[in-house]
Specification:
Layout lengths: L2 H25 L1 H17 L15 E10 L5 E8 L4 E7 L5 H17 L9 H18 L14 H9 L11 H14 L8 H14 L5 H4 L4 E6 L7 E4 L3 E5 L6 H14 L10 E5 L5 E5 L9 E5 L8 H6 L5 H12 L4 E5 L5 H8 L9 E5 L11 E5 L18 H8 L6 E4 L6 H10 L3 E7 L3 H9 L15 E10 L2 E15 L6 E9 L7 E3 L4 H10 L3 H20 L5 H13 L1 H13 L1
Parallel strand pairs: 3-6, 10-14, 10-15, 11-12, 11-13, 13-14
Antiparallel strand pairs: 1-2, 2-3, 4-5, 4-9, 5-6, 7-8, 8-9, 15-16, 16-17, 17-18
Helix pairs in contact: 1-2, 1-5, 2-5, 3-7, 4-7, 11-17, 13-14, 17-19, 18-19
């Protein structure tokens, strides 16, 4: 069938619908004027709450994921589609659309709420905040006699049906009687998940709750656990996300204008406890849900205001997750368990978004529960189940350089120096990039177990970074470090996956050549052969044998027991970091009892 025939057929269907409309209105003269007027007004004001009709052929747009139930009364939804026209994924959010009149009412209610609501909600939980907001808004509506238009009458679907038909969204077979018509329309709307609102109030409340209790336009994507990063490059470009499964995706979210974006960024900074201004146009902060925020203000360091949000899972990843994702092998996990328990210091290296901090956080769960831990970070990312844990974060004042630093500026160097006076057993530093590295390595040299991350892709790049300004470490001090882990994002099968590409042990410094001698107990093979190779030689294992006076068979048995326990946790799908930490602590205290339970359940 050619394009001309298709167009003629579509025109005939539209004419048929008009005839049905005339027939229906002749049978129902009382409702004729109201329904027609409402349908016309809906089309003029764009108040219908379904997504905009796709211009492309439906066969070219494939819905990959679809999730509903976001926001007030669960009116919001999101979906991921694949556009075969351009061979790209697209992330779409679907929310109630407001007419001009509804936008005006929303602004009025919002203004009145800001003027009247002076209650401290800091100690309220989410449910209490929702109850308080709803009661306050209802009282504002009553006090100011605000009226809302009724959008749809019960069982009157005809106006919406006409809009759907004229826009070519659906095809159908109808009978001429009223009951079949209404049943058909109702079924079509249910299948297309069209939301019906009793009044404009529902739509306005959705946006008010989204703006006051959520994250405004990005509220739905902030509640999507599949998203790792949210990036806004200005008000004239859409927001981009990095999805755990589909990687970089464009969204259908825009900020209306530069003023709206600036206001939103100021709000983000304020709820993260920071202030952004022309004097201080760059902010690094942490949002209440634990996400990391980086924001810049327009016309200072960037042309337009920008922000990037790095989201973290509410339930942090554990070594079990890393094994399932093939980031490391179960043998490597057992190795790190033994190394961390015996007090080995580890440095995690890699590029941006390679999984350094994730690996650091996950493997820190092997730290014995009795150890005192102090973590030092610019932005809180480490989550541990240990009770004896002090979490420190830096504080930025108004100084422009270290020479002008005042008491209001507290950097990592200050926190490490203070931590050494608190008698910690373990020191965790989020990332070393300056003079704090010298204090960290001095702590290693004096017997403090330390873990940290640094940006470096190879062992030679790492040594160059550590030995040159601004870090400037003497090479002899590098021998205080026990293990260097290289984490990389590699492309396998068209997807970017994280792999622990190398585990390197520092053996000693050759006094004749002044060269560091290394040993690699584990290495990742290649993209085409996605597995890990094991070298039987290990300084950590040799030291463990000497400390415990073990034979080679006893060492292998201990490694085998820990592998068995890890495999049992994988089988039981123990994901919670609290549960994982408890099992590790139980094994340290009662190894025989734990192994007996594991062996019994593995046999079943």
């Amino acid at each position: 069938m050619g394009l001309l025939e298709k167009a003629q057929q579509k025109k005939e269907k539209i004419e048929e619908s008009k005839n049905l409309q005339i027939s229906y209105n002749e049978k129902n003269p009382k409702t004729q004027k109201g329904l027609l007027d409402k349908a016309k007004k809906r089309k003029e004001d764009h108040v219908i709450s379904y997504p905009k009709p796709a211009i492309e052929d439906e066969k070219e747009i494939e819905v990959i994921e679809d999730q509903k139930g976001f926001g007030w009364k669960k009116f919001g939804s999101k979906r991921i589609v694949y556009d075969h026209n351009i061979n790209e994924y697209r992330y779409e959010i679907i929310e109630p659309r407001l007419s001009e009149e509804e936008i005006t009412v929303k602004k009025e209610i919002s203004h009145l709420f800001k003027m009247l609501a002076d209650v401290d909600t800091f100690d309220m939980n989410k449910e209490e905040k929702e109850i308080f907001l709803e009661k306050t808004l209802e009282q504002i509506i009553i006090d100011n006699d605000i009226k809302f238009d009724e959008l749809y009458e019960d069982n009157n679907f005809y106006g919406l049906f006409t809009d759907f038909l004229n826009e070519g969204r659906i095809e159908f077979i109808l009978h001429n009687d009223k009951i079949s018509l209404e049943n058909t329309i109702e079924r079509i709307f249910i299948e297309n998940d069209v939301k019906f609102y009793k009044s404009s109030k529902d739509k306005i409340f959705y946006h008010l709750f989204r703006d006051f209790l959520g994250y405004g336009r990005i509220d739905i994507i902030m509640h999507d656990d599949g998203i790792e990063d949210i990036s806004c490059d200005g008000n004239i470009t859409p927001i981009f996300i990095h999805h755990r499964k589909y990687e970089a995706i464009e969204t259908n979210i825009f900020f209306g204008n530069e003023e709206e974006l600036n206001s939103f960024i100021v709000k983000l900074c304020q709820i993260s406890g920071k202030q952004i201004s022309i004097y201080s146009p760059i902010v690094d902060g942490k949002l209440p849900d634990g996400s990391r925020l980086q924001a810049t203000l327009a016309r200072t360091v960037t042309k337009g205001s920008t922000f990037t949000i790095r989201k973290f899972k509410e339930d942090p990843l554990t070594p079990i997750d890393l094994i399932k994702y093939k980031s490391l092998s179960v043998e490597m996990a057992a190795y790190f368990w033994i190394a961390i328990e015996s007090g080995a210091s580890i440095l995690f290296c890699g590029g941006t978004a390679s999984g350094k901090t994730t690996a650091l956080n996950a493997l820190s769960l092997f730290i014995p529960s009795s150890h005192k831990i102090i973590s030092i970070e610019d932005t809180r990312e480490v989550s541990l189940p240990h009770k004896n844990w002090i979490a420190g974060t830096t504080r930025k004042g108004f100084s422009a350089s270290d020479e002008n630093k005042t008491g209001k500026d507290i950097d990592m160097f200050d926190l490490i120096r203070a931590a050494l006076r608190q008698r910690p057993r373990v020191i965790i530093v989020g990332e070393v990039r300056g003079r704090e590295a010298y204090s960290l390595f001095q702590a290693m040299a004096t017997g403090h177990t330390s873990y940290s991350t640094v940006h470096a892709s190879t062992i030679h790049t790492l040594i160059q970074r550590l030995e040159n300004p601004p870090i400037s470490l003497p090479r002899a001090l590098l021998t205080s470090l026990d293990i260097i882990v290289f984490q990389n994002a590699v492309e396998i099968g068209g997807k970017m996956l994280r792999r622990m590409t190398s585990v390197t042990e520092i053996i000693k410094l050759d006094s004749d050549t002044n060269q560091l001698i290394f040993m690699a107990p584990f290495t990742w093979v290649s993209k085409t052969d996605d597995r890990f190779e094991t070298n039987q030689n290990s300084k950590i294992y040799n030291r463990l044998k000497q400390q415990n006076d073990w034979t080679e068979e006893q060492l292998k048995m201990e490694i085998s027991n820990r592998i068995k326990l890890l495999e049992w946790m994988m089988k039981k799908e123990i994901r919670s970091y609290q549960d994982f930490g408890k099992i590790i602590a139980d094994y340290q205290k009662y190894p025989k009892e734990v192994l007996k339970k594991v062996e019994k359940e593995m046999e079943e």
